[in-house]
Structure prediction request, 306 residues.
Amino acid sequence: MADGKTRILLATILAPCLWGSTYIVFTQTLPVEHPLLVGALRALPAGLLLMLLGPGLPPRDRLLPLAVIGFANIGLFFGMLFLSASRLPGGLAATLGSMQPLLVAFLAWPLLLRRPRLGQVLAALAGTVGVGLLVIGDTVRLDAVGVVAALVGAASMATGTVLIERWGRVGTPLALAAWQLTLGGLLLLPVALAVEGLPPMPTLRNLAGLSYLVVIGTALAYWLWVRGIAAIGTGVAFLSLLSPLVATFLGAALLGEWFTPRQWFGIAIVFGSTVAGIMLSRRRPAAPVAPAQAATPSRLISQCSS
Prediction:
């Protein structure tokens, strides 16, 4: 991997690490009875903030694909993420969400014509097992709505990740992050208001938690994430396995607890799956064009029209 891509990969790792703080910030500082509204208020201000940094409004001829990406990667995902967090223990929600790399591997087949490798599938399955060993306790409280929300959220962000690689070359990573956050927030906001209504008057604690999520956990994190997808490809989805790892470290630090041998085993599996998944998901270099075919007018015309 070239030095430039290595630097981008290292910076992209910061995104899921920041997302690892989302569950604690949401449950400790924000109104959990308004999960859809929290998702909308997380996305929309972050998108507007990034748009003010230079990208401006999205091109009108690309609004439809950008809206689809924004709905999948932001609007639906944020709504389902906070809904599952409000109804499930953090460990179970994280384990269900960790299925995203597996879903990305299979969605890339029809959407990017990239057949998943066996190693990718095994690494993704091992990652989910590792997360489960790390975060699920002896007693698990199941909630049907929360389970469905977590699975839909994982599928939604997996779809958005693949679509960013397919349709996302319409601007810089900063522009794409800004546009999908704004459009996703705009799509989620009216649904949240219709379903949940207005929340109570926010407290300073609410405002502090939301400010952190908007600026650090969303605007910065999603810019790094989109840049990583653009440079490296959908293999960055394996980095999402680090999010529950960070969340567990934060929870243990707040409670003054230490990890059990089972959890250390889960941590080792998560790290191994992440590295293996990234390596196995690297895009193959394009096959060189034969010299005899390189300059024929018919070939050039067909390439330009495709």
Q: What stands out?
A: The chain has a mean pLDDT of 84.
